[in-house]
Amino acid sequence: MGLLVTRGAERHGGRRGRGGAFRLLALALTTALGLVVGGVEASSADAASVCAGRPAKTVKFATGELRVYRTRDYACATAVATKPGKQRPMSVQIQPRGGRPVADSGSFTQRAGPVTVHALNRCVRASGTISGKTGTTSWILC
Hints:
- The protein is of the alpha+beta class and 142 residues long.
- The protein is 18% helix and 41% strand.
- It contains 2 helices and 8 strands.
- The strands form 2 sheets. Strands 1-2-3-6 form a 4-stranded antiparallel β-sheet, with no helix packed on it. A 4-stranded antiparallel β-sheet has the order 5-4-7-8, with no helix packed on it.
- The chain is elongated.
- The longest helix has 20 residues, at 19-38.
């Protein structure tokens, strides 16, 4: 009978190296840093702000609000429910002037979107619907 020769873990006393320990340490430090910098609690406004840029327009309606954000080159929209929790039909749409609309729709618990369009030197219009109630903007960011 032959002798079984193995390579890898047995050759180093059962260890594959210290990569796993370093990854675990890095994960712990990243989590701790996130808690220190971001705080333990995040407000609902911070959690719902998923678009890049600065807020440009907010339209409140019965079941939520439509939020439009802008950077230099892009515009972004999201529809956020006033009372998140149960799934309900939601949609959000944004359209640059002279371009096609971009939309997100479905059953969501908190928000629809974000949807983003290229809007450098262009007006945009947006609309958001939550449970059949709608908020819209006219042409903005012109």
